[in-house]
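Quick one: structure for this chain?
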Amino acid sequence: KGQISQVDIGTLFQLRGEGRVFLVDVRPAFFFSLGHIPGSISLPLKKFDTEFPAVRSEFEAALGADRVIVLYCTNAKCPDGLIAAGKLSKLGYSTSVYKGGWKEWQDAGL
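Got it. Here's what it folds into:
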């Protein structure tokens, strides 16, 4: 079973700068198309079970490159990142959740 941790905006910014993060946006694809943290992939929570097999190799490659898997949603009130982290944990993946989400990232001007 994988571990679940949290990252703050400073840690995420540092990991991105070092190229050591695999970002996963769990919001609905429509919101992803309107804007997302650069470099992230879209894996909407509602479609997780059907879409994860298609991107599993990307998760494996990220782990092989020693990158941290970070999930995010809209903001701190959105539970989807944590729910997706739970699903990934059951599959054996350790992940981090960026609670501030897209809103905090956008508000910070990043």
